[in-house]
Amino acid sequence: MARLDVSPAEFESLVAKALDELPPEFADLLENIAVVIADEPDEDDFDLSDTPHEHELLGIFRGVARTDLSWTQIPSLPNQIVIFRRPILRIARSRAEVVAEVQETVIHELGHFFGLSDEEMPY
Description:
Strand order of the largest sheet: 1-3-2
CATH architecture: 2-Layer Sandwich
Structural class: alpha+beta
């Protein structure tokens, strides 16, 4: 199967669209978080996520979940959600699947930001 050709700029616009389509009640709570795109996860990402290396890692949340924050904490660097472009392109069979995977991955990683575990999320 040939890999889909979605340019980095187009992929970035898909991530931006997924964020723009969030319901306002969630979008309004996105403080101290950066959403970035990387081509591939690194070893630390696999370790942090407990994802076996033979599986594709589509995204990751790096930071402290909102449910774990305390008003006594010193402000820190922004939390980060990373969406991995090449793994998503490898698993998608069509452009529509790329769009769906980007949206699902953004929502899934935001779920971690809001304190949900993998088992608590539909994505």
